Amino acid sequence: MAFDITDFGAVGDGSTDDTAAIQAAIDAAYDAGGGTIFVPKGTYAVTGLWRSFAGVVPILFKGEGKFLSTFVKIAGTDAPILTLSAEGVLDIYGGLEDIGFQGVARAGTGLRLEQVARIQMDRVLFKNCEVGLELRASLIFRLRDCTINSNWTGIKVRRQRDASNTVRGPGSNLLVFEGGEVRDNLAWGVDLGEGMGHAFRSVNFEQNGSRAVVTGMISGTTLMVTDVMSGVIRVGDELVGADVLPGTMVIALGAETGTYVVSRSQNIGSRTLASSDLDSGAVIIRESVDGESGYANFVFDGCWFEGNNGRAFVCEDGLINLMLTNCFWINNDGGRDVEIGDIRNSNIFNVVAPSAGAAFRIGAAQSQVIGSHITALIDNSTSKFHLNIVNSGATGNGGIATGPVQWQPTALGFFGTLPIAKPTGVAATAAGLHAALVSLGLISG
Protein backbone atom coordinates (compact mmCIF):
# COMPACT_ATOMS: atom_id res chain seq x y z
CA MET A 1 0.00 0.00 0.00
CA ALA A 2 1.30 3.46 -0.91
CA PHE A 3 0.92 6.60 1.17
CA ASP A 4 1.65 9.76 -0.84
CA ILE A 5 2.66 12.52 1.59
CA THR A 6 0.99 15.15 -0.63
CA ASP A 7 -2.33 13.37 -0.07
CA PHE A 8 -1.86 14.19 3.62
CA GLY A 9 -1.24 17.88 2.89
CA ALA A 10 2.52 18.13 2.37
CA VAL A 11 3.45 21.03 0.06
CA GLY A 12 7.19 20.62 -0.63
CA ASP A 13 7.99 24.25 -1.40
CA GLY A 14 10.92 24.44 1.04
CA SER A 15 9.25 27.00 3.33
CA THR A 16 5.92 25.53 4.44
CA ASP A 17 6.20 23.42 7.59
CA ASP A 18 5.26 19.95 6.32
CA THR A 19 5.98 18.13 9.60
CA ALA A 20 2.38 17.36 10.57
CA ALA A 21 1.39 16.15 7.10
CA ILE A 22 4.37 13.81 6.69
CA GLN A 23 4.03 12.52 10.25
CA ALA A 24 0.39 11.67 9.50
CA ALA A 25 1.50 9.65 6.45
CA ILE A 26 4.10 7.77 8.54
CA ASP A 27 1.53 6.98 11.24
CA ALA A 28 -1.01 5.81 8.69
CA ALA A 29 1.51 3.44 7.10
CA TYR A 30 2.45 2.07 10.52
CA ASP A 31 -1.18 1.59 11.57
CA ALA A 32 -1.86 -0.25 8.30
CA GLY A 33 0.88 -2.75 9.08
CA GLY A 34 3.40 -1.30 6.67
CA GLY A 35 3.63 0.22 3.24
CA THR A 36 5.46 2.68 1.03
CA ILE A 37 5.61 6.33 1.99
CA PHE A 38 5.93 8.11 -1.34
CA VAL A 39 7.81 11.43 -1.38
CA PRO A 40 7.30 13.25 -4.72
CA LYS A 41 9.84 15.73 -6.05
CA GLY A 42 10.08 18.71 -3.73
CA THR A 43 11.76 20.19 -0.68
CA TYR A 44 9.84 19.35 2.48
CA ALA A 45 10.66 21.50 5.52
CA VAL A 46 10.26 19.68 8.85
CA THR A 47 11.05 20.16 12.52
CA GLY A 48 11.49 16.43 13.18
CA LEU A 49 9.79 13.18 12.16
CA TRP A 50 9.80 9.95 14.15
CA ARG A 51 8.39 6.45 14.40
CA SER A 52 8.76 4.03 17.32
CA PHE A 53 8.30 0.37 16.39
CA ALA A 54 6.70 -2.19 18.70
CA GLY A 55 6.70 -4.97 16.12
CA VAL A 56 7.76 -5.85 12.60
CA VAL A 57 6.13 -3.22 10.38
CA PRO A 58 7.98 -2.88 7.06
CA ILE A 59 7.96 0.75 5.91
CA LEU A 60 9.76 2.00 2.80
CA PHE A 61 10.41 5.72 2.29
CA LYS A 62 10.46 6.14 -1.49
CA GLY A 63 11.33 9.34 -3.36
CA GLU A 64 12.02 10.30 -6.95
CA GLY A 65 15.76 10.93 -6.59
CA LYS A 66 18.16 11.67 -3.75
CA PHE A 67 18.69 15.20 -5.09
CA LEU A 68 15.01 15.71 -6.00
CA SER A 69 12.93 14.47 -3.04
CA THR A 70 14.39 16.16 0.03
CA PHE A 71 13.55 16.53 3.70
CA VAL A 72 15.13 19.76 4.92
CA LYS A 73 15.58 20.80 8.53
CA ILE A 74 13.82 23.91 9.78
CA ALA A 75 16.45 26.12 11.42
CA GLY A 76 16.43 26.41 15.19
CA THR A 77 14.97 22.97 15.94
CA ASP A 78 16.93 20.24 17.70
CA ALA A 79 15.35 16.90 16.77
CA PRO A 80 16.79 14.78 13.94
CA ILE A 81 15.02 15.13 10.61
CA LEU A 82 13.86 11.50 10.98
CA THR A 83 14.20 9.08 13.90
CA LEU A 84 13.30 5.40 13.69
CA SER A 85 13.50 3.57 17.03
CA ALA A 86 12.46 0.48 18.95
CA GLU A 87 12.62 -0.81 22.51
CA GLY A 88 15.10 -3.66 22.33
CA VAL A 89 16.73 -4.39 19.01
CA LEU A 90 13.97 -5.16 16.53
CA ASP A 91 14.09 -6.33 12.92
CA ILE A 92 11.81 -3.89 11.10
CA TYR A 93 12.73 -4.78 7.50
CA GLY A 94 12.38 -1.20 6.34
CA GLY A 95 14.15 0.91 3.79
CA LEU A 96 14.80 4.26 2.16
CA GLU A 97 15.23 4.86 -1.56
CA ASP A 98 15.89 7.93 -3.71
CA ILE A 99 15.49 10.48 -0.94
CA GLY A 100 17.57 13.23 0.67
CA PHE A 101 18.14 14.61 4.18
CA GLN A 102 19.50 18.14 4.34
CA GLY A 103 20.34 20.15 7.46
CA VAL A 104 21.03 23.85 7.94
CA ALA A 105 24.57 25.10 8.58
CA ARG A 106 25.74 21.64 9.64
CA ALA A 107 23.29 21.53 12.56
CA GLY A 108 21.18 18.60 13.75
CA THR A 109 21.09 14.98 12.64
CA GLY A 110 19.75 13.78 9.30
CA LEU A 111 18.63 10.22 10.09
CA ARG A 112 18.94 8.60 13.51
CA LEU A 113 18.33 4.86 13.95
CA GLU A 114 17.92 3.56 17.51
CA GLN A 115 17.83 -0.19 18.23
CA VAL A 116 16.41 -1.15 14.86
CA ALA A 117 17.76 -3.75 12.46
CA ARG A 118 17.56 -4.85 8.84
CA ILE A 119 17.18 -1.61 6.94
CA GLN A 120 18.35 -1.05 3.40
CA MET A 121 19.20 2.36 1.97
CA ASP A 122 19.56 2.91 -1.75
CA ARG A 123 20.55 6.24 -3.29
CA VAL A 124 20.07 8.35 -0.15
CA LEU A 125 21.65 11.79 0.39
CA PHE A 126 22.81 13.12 3.78
CA LYS A 127 24.00 16.72 3.51
CA ASN A 128 24.81 19.75 5.66
CA CYS A 129 23.97 18.11 9.02
CA GLU A 130 25.92 17.89 12.25
CA VAL A 131 25.67 14.11 11.81
CA GLY A 132 24.37 12.81 8.50
CA LEU A 133 23.54 9.23 9.51
CA GLU A 134 23.67 8.20 13.17
CA LEU A 135 23.40 4.56 14.26
CA ARG A 136 22.68 3.82 17.92
CA ALA A 137 22.57 0.10 18.76
CA SER A 138 21.28 -0.54 15.25
CA LEU A 139 22.56 -3.34 13.09
CA ILE A 140 22.43 -5.30 9.86
CA PHE A 141 22.31 -2.47 7.35
CA ARG A 142 23.14 -2.07 3.73
CA LEU A 143 23.82 1.29 2.12
CA ARG A 144 24.22 1.40 -1.64
CA ASP A 145 25.13 4.40 -3.80
CA CYS A 146 24.52 6.82 -0.93
CA THR A 147 26.05 10.32 -0.76
CA ILE A 148 27.38 11.59 2.59
CA ASN A 149 28.29 15.18 1.78
CA SER A 150 29.24 18.40 3.62
CA ASN A 151 28.24 17.35 7.14
CA TRP A 152 30.20 17.89 10.33
CA THR A 153 30.38 14.08 10.72
CA GLY A 154 29.08 11.92 7.89
CA ILE A 155 28.33 8.59 9.58
CA LYS A 156 28.53 8.07 13.34
CA VAL A 157 28.24 4.60 14.89
CA ARG A 158 27.65 4.11 18.61
CA ARG A 159 25.76 2.02 21.17
CA GLN A 160 22.49 3.30 22.59
CA ARG A 161 22.71 5.18 25.89
CA ASP A 162 20.19 6.90 28.13
CA ALA A 163 20.45 10.39 29.60
CA SER A 164 22.83 9.15 32.33
CA ASN A 165 25.12 7.57 29.69
CA THR A 166 24.14 4.03 30.72
CA VAL A 167 24.41 1.54 27.85
CA ARG A 168 20.96 0.38 26.72
CA GLY A 169 21.76 -1.69 23.67
CA PRO A 170 24.42 -3.63 21.77
CA GLY A 171 26.93 -2.23 19.34
CA SER A 172 25.84 -1.04 15.92
CA ASN A 173 27.06 -4.06 14.00
CA LEU A 174 27.14 -5.44 10.47
CA LEU A 175 27.06 -2.32 8.31
CA VAL A 176 27.77 -2.72 4.59
CA PHE A 177 28.32 0.39 2.45
CA GLU A 178 28.63 -0.23 -1.29
CA GLY A 179 29.37 2.46 -3.85
CA GLY A 180 28.59 6.11 -3.24
CA GLU A 181 30.79 8.77 -1.71
CA VAL A 182 31.78 10.36 1.58
CA ARG A 183 32.96 13.90 0.80
CA ASP A 184 33.63 17.30 2.37
CA ASN A 185 32.70 16.35 5.94
CA LEU A 186 34.53 18.71 8.30
CA ALA A 187 35.23 16.37 11.22
CA TRP A 188 35.13 12.70 10.20
CA GLY A 189 33.65 11.21 7.10
CA VAL A 190 32.99 7.97 8.99
CA ASP A 191 33.34 7.67 12.79
CA LEU A 192 33.10 4.02 13.82
CA GLY A 193 32.83 3.40 17.55
CA GLU A 194 31.06 0.63 19.49
CA GLY A 195 30.29 -1.55 16.54
CA MET A 196 31.83 -4.35 14.51
CA GLY A 197 31.58 -6.31 11.30
CA HIS A 198 31.57 -3.30 8.95
CA ALA A 199 32.47 -3.49 5.27
CA PHE A 200 33.00 -0.60 2.85
CA ARG A 201 33.27 -1.49 -0.82
CA SER A 202 33.99 0.89 -3.71
CA VAL A 203 33.34 4.01 -1.63
CA ASN A 204 34.95 7.34 -2.55
CA PHE A 205 36.38 9.17 0.50
CA GLU A 206 37.40 12.63 -0.65
CA GLN A 207 38.22 16.00 0.95
CA ASN A 208 37.07 15.10 4.45
CA GLY A 209 38.65 16.66 7.53
CA SER A 210 39.66 20.22 8.38
CA ARG A 211 42.64 22.30 7.33
CA ALA A 212 43.24 26.03 7.64
CA VAL A 213 45.47 27.99 5.24
CA VAL A 214 46.82 31.29 6.57
CA THR A 215 49.55 33.87 6.17
CA GLY A 216 51.62 34.18 9.32
CA MET A 217 54.98 34.21 11.06
CA ILE A 218 56.48 32.50 14.10
CA SER A 219 58.63 34.24 16.71
CA GLY A 220 59.74 31.86 19.44
CA THR A 221 56.56 30.02 20.39
CA THR A 222 54.19 32.75 19.17
CA LEU A 223 52.34 32.30 15.88
CA MET A 224 51.05 35.61 14.49
CA VAL A 225 48.37 35.26 11.78
CA THR A 226 47.91 38.23 9.46
CA ASP A 227 45.48 36.72 6.94
CA VAL A 228 43.16 33.69 6.87
CA MET A 229 42.64 32.30 3.39
CA SER A 230 40.49 29.33 4.41
CA GLY A 231 39.43 27.28 7.42
CA VAL A 232 39.84 27.87 11.15
CA ILE A 233 42.96 27.26 13.28
CA ARG A 234 42.17 25.15 16.34
CA VAL A 235 44.14 24.21 19.43
CA GLY A 236 45.52 20.74 18.75
CA ASP A 237 46.20 21.41 15.06
CA GLU A 238 49.54 20.51 13.53
CA LEU A 239 51.25 23.45 11.80
CA VAL A 240 53.13 22.91 8.54
CA GLY A 241 54.87 25.16 6.04
CA ALA A 242 58.26 25.96 4.55
CA ASP A 243 61.00 25.66 7.22
CA VAL A 244 58.48 24.95 10.03
CA LEU A 245 59.90 22.36 12.43
CA PRO A 246 58.24 18.94 12.21
CA GLY A 247 55.77 18.24 15.00
CA THR A 248 54.90 21.90 15.58
CA MET A 249 51.49 21.90 17.28
CA VAL A 250 49.09 24.74 18.12
CA ILE A 251 48.79 24.32 21.89
CA ALA A 252 46.93 27.47 23.04
CA LEU A 253 45.37 30.73 22.01
CA GLY A 254 47.69 33.72 22.17
CA ALA A 255 47.40 36.79 24.34
CA GLU A 256 46.28 38.96 21.43
CA THR A 257 43.78 38.55 18.61
CA GLY A 258 45.33 36.59 15.78
CA THR A 259 48.09 35.01 17.89
CA TYR A 260 48.58 31.41 19.00
CA VAL A 261 51.10 29.49 21.08
CA VAL A 262 52.95 26.67 19.33
CA SER A 263 54.82 23.76 20.82
CA ARG A 264 58.28 24.32 19.28
CA SER A 265 60.31 27.52 19.46
CA GLN A 266 61.53 28.83 16.08
CA ASN A 267 61.73 31.97 14.00
CA ILE A 268 59.88 31.88 10.69
CA GLY A 269 59.22 34.93 8.52
CA SER A 270 55.87 35.73 6.97
CA ARG A 271 54.67 33.01 4.61
CA THR A 272 51.81 30.67 3.81
CA LEU A 273 51.17 28.17 6.60
CA ALA A 274 48.63 25.41 7.05
CA SER A 275 47.18 23.90 10.20
CA SER A 276 45.61 20.45 10.12
CA ASP A 277 42.96 19.35 12.62
CA LEU A 278 44.25 15.94 13.74
CA ASP A 279 40.83 15.04 15.14
CA SER A 280 39.40 14.94 11.64
CA GLY A 281 39.76 12.97 8.44
CA ALA A 282 38.06 10.37 6.27
CA VAL A 283 37.75 7.32 8.56
CA ILE A 284 38.37 6.65 12.24
CA ILE A 285 37.88 3.25 13.90
CA ARG A 286 37.86 3.97 17.60
CA GLU A 287 39.31 1.87 20.38
CA SER A 288 35.82 1.43 21.85
CA VAL A 289 34.61 -0.72 18.94
CA ASP A 290 35.58 -3.99 20.64
CA GLY A 291 33.93 -3.19 23.97
CA GLU A 292 30.93 -5.47 23.48
CA SER A 293 32.28 -8.81 22.28
CA GLY A 294 36.04 -8.53 22.59
CA TYR A 295 36.63 -8.50 18.85
CA ALA A 296 35.75 -6.47 15.78
CA ASN A 297 36.28 -6.96 12.04
CA PHE A 298 36.51 -4.23 9.40
CA VAL A 299 37.00 -4.48 5.63
CA PHE A 300 37.70 -1.69 3.15
CA ASP A 301 37.78 -3.02 -0.41
CA GLY A 302 38.21 -1.02 -3.60
CA CYS A 303 37.88 2.34 -1.81
CA TRP A 304 39.42 5.64 -2.95
CA PHE A 305 40.98 8.11 -0.49
CA GLU A 306 41.93 11.45 -2.05
CA GLY A 307 42.59 14.96 -0.77
CA ASN A 308 41.55 14.26 2.81
CA ASN A 309 42.78 16.65 5.50
CA GLY A 310 43.87 15.84 9.05
CA ARG A 311 44.31 12.06 9.19
CA ALA A 312 42.98 10.12 6.23
CA PHE A 313 42.52 6.68 7.83
CA VAL A 314 42.93 5.89 11.54
CA CYS A 315 42.45 2.60 13.37
CA GLU A 316 43.01 3.00 17.10
CA ASP A 317 44.18 0.29 19.53
CA GLY A 318 41.93 -2.68 20.26
CA LEU A 319 41.11 -6.31 19.52
CA ILE A 320 40.49 -5.50 15.90
CA ASN A 321 40.97 -7.44 12.66
CA LEU A 322 41.42 -4.99 9.78
CA MET A 323 41.65 -5.67 6.06
CA LEU A 324 42.49 -3.06 3.42
CA THR A 325 42.35 -4.46 -0.12
CA ASN A 326 42.50 -2.90 -3.60
CA CYS A 327 42.34 0.63 -2.17
CA PHE A 328 43.99 3.81 -3.46
CA TRP A 329 45.39 6.76 -1.46
CA ILE A 330 46.46 9.97 -3.22
CA ASN A 331 47.28 13.54 -2.16
CA ASN A 332 46.11 13.23 1.43
CA ASP A 333 47.28 15.78 4.00
CA GLY A 334 50.61 15.55 5.78
CA GLY A 335 51.65 11.97 5.03
CA ARG A 336 49.01 10.54 7.35
CA ASP A 337 47.41 8.20 4.85
CA VAL A 338 47.01 5.18 7.15
CA GLU A 339 47.64 4.97 10.90
CA ILE A 340 47.03 1.58 12.50
CA GLY A 341 47.50 1.19 16.24
CA ASP A 342 47.98 -1.82 18.51
CA ILE A 343 45.31 -4.05 17.00
CA ARG A 344 45.16 -7.82 16.63
CA ASN A 345 45.59 -8.24 12.86
CA SER A 346 46.40 -5.76 10.09
CA ASN A 347 46.08 -7.14 6.57
CA ILE A 348 46.93 -4.94 3.58
CA PHE A 349 46.75 -6.36 0.07
CA ASN A 350 47.18 -4.72 -3.33
CA VAL A 351 46.90 -1.10 -2.20
CA VAL A 352 48.42 1.92 -3.93
CA ALA A 353 49.69 5.08 -2.17
CA PRO A 354 52.16 6.66 -4.63
CA SER A 355 52.03 10.34 -3.60
CA ALA A 356 55.21 11.98 -2.34
CA GLY A 357 55.12 11.82 1.45
CA ALA A 358 52.38 9.19 1.58
CA ALA A 359 52.92 7.03 4.66
CA PHE A 360 51.43 3.95 6.28
CA ARG A 361 52.22 3.53 9.99
CA ILE A 362 51.38 0.18 11.59
CA GLY A 363 51.81 -1.00 15.18
CA ALA A 364 49.73 -4.18 15.24
CA ALA A 365 50.39 -7.50 16.93
CA GLN A 366 50.38 -9.15 13.51
CA SER A 367 50.77 -7.42 10.15
CA GLN A 368 50.76 -8.49 6.51
CA VAL A 369 51.51 -6.16 3.61
CA ILE A 370 51.46 -7.87 0.24
CA GLY A 371 51.61 -6.74 -3.38
CA SER A 372 51.35 -3.02 -2.68
CA HIS A 373 52.87 0.29 -3.84
CA ILE A 374 53.41 2.48 -0.76
CA THR A 375 55.77 5.45 -0.72
CA ALA A 376 56.69 4.98 2.96
CA LEU A 377 55.84 1.96 5.10
CA ILE A 378 56.65 2.23 8.80
CA ASP A 379 55.69 -1.14 10.26
CA ASN A 380 56.59 -1.60 13.93
CA SER A 381 54.26 -4.56 14.43
CA THR A 382 55.32 -7.39 16.71
CA SER A 383 55.09 -9.94 13.89
CA LYS A 384 54.99 -8.98 10.25
CA PHE A 385 55.19 -10.43 6.78
CA HIS A 386 55.87 -8.28 3.71
CA LEU A 387 55.86 -9.48 0.12
CA ASN A 388 56.41 -7.49 -3.08
CA ILE A 389 56.27 -3.97 -1.67
CA VAL A 390 57.10 -1.33 -4.28
CA ASN A 391 58.72 2.04 -3.49
CA SER A 392 58.74 1.52 0.25
CA GLY A 393 61.50 2.77 2.50
CA ALA A 394 60.24 0.21 5.03
CA THR A 395 61.36 2.37 7.96
CA GLY A 396 61.42 0.78 11.41
CA ASN A 397 61.04 -2.77 10.23
CA GLY A 398 63.62 -4.17 12.62
CA GLY A 399 65.99 -5.70 10.11
CA ILE A 400 63.43 -7.29 7.81
CA ALA A 401 65.13 -8.05 4.53
CA THR A 402 64.47 -5.79 1.57
CA GLY A 403 63.80 -7.28 -1.84
CA PRO A 404 60.85 -9.27 -3.20
CA VAL A 405 60.39 -11.27 0.04
CA GLN A 406 60.69 -9.84 3.53
CA TRP A 407 60.81 -12.02 6.63
CA GLN A 408 59.19 -11.29 9.96
CA PRO A 409 61.53 -11.25 12.97
CA THR A 410 60.15 -14.42 14.59
CA ALA A 411 59.08 -17.40 12.48
CA LEU A 412 59.57 -17.73 8.75
CA GLY A 413 56.52 -16.54 6.85
CA PHE A 414 54.14 -17.16 9.74
CA PHE A 415 52.61 -15.37 12.69
CA GLY A 416 53.36 -16.93 16.04
CA THR A 417 56.37 -18.77 17.30
CA LEU A 418 56.59 -22.02 15.39
CA PRO A 419 59.89 -23.85 15.88
CA ILE A 420 61.20 -22.80 12.48
CA ALA A 421 64.72 -21.56 12.01
CA LYS A 422 64.69 -17.96 10.79
CA PRO A 423 67.21 -17.19 8.03
CA THR A 424 70.06 -15.17 9.44
CA GLY A 425 71.66 -12.04 8.02
CA VAL A 426 70.08 -9.16 6.18
CA ALA A 427 68.71 -11.31 3.37
CA ALA A 428 67.39 -14.87 3.37
CA THR A 429 70.10 -17.24 2.11
CA ALA A 430 69.39 -20.34 0.08
CA ALA A 431 70.67 -22.50 2.94
CA GLY A 432 68.46 -20.74 5.46
CA LEU A 433 65.40 -21.11 3.27
CA HIS A 434 66.17 -24.80 2.68
CA ALA A 435 66.49 -25.43 6.44
CA ALA A 436 63.18 -23.69 7.12
CA LEU A 437 61.33 -25.73 4.49
CA VAL A 438 62.80 -28.93 5.89
CA SER A 439 61.65 -28.00 9.40
CA LEU A 440 58.13 -27.56 8.03
CA GLY A 441 58.22 -30.98 6.44
CA LEU A 442 57.58 -29.48 3.04
CA ILE A 443 60.74 -30.94 1.52
CA SER A 444 63.08 -33.74 2.50
CA GLY A 445 66.52 -33.10 3.98
Task: Describe this entry's structure for a reader.
This protein is mainly β and 445 residues long. 5% of the residues lie in helices and 51% in strands. It contains 2 helices and 36 strands. The strands form 2 sheets. The chain has a 32-stranded mixed beta sheet that branches. Strands 19, 20, 21 and 22 form a 4-stranded antiparallel beta sheet that branches. The N and C termini lie far apart (74 Å). The model is unreliable at 395-428 (pLDDT under 50).
Low-confidence stretches: 395-428
Shape: globular
* Amino-to-carboxy terminus distance: 74 Å
Mean pLDDT: 86
Which strand-content bin applies to the residues?
over 45%
What helical percentage do the residues reach? under 10%
Radius of gyration: 25 Å
What is the overall number of helices?
2
* Biggest sheet details: 32 strands, mixed
Q: How many strand segments?
A: 36
Q: Which structural class best describes the helix and strand composition?
A: mainly beta
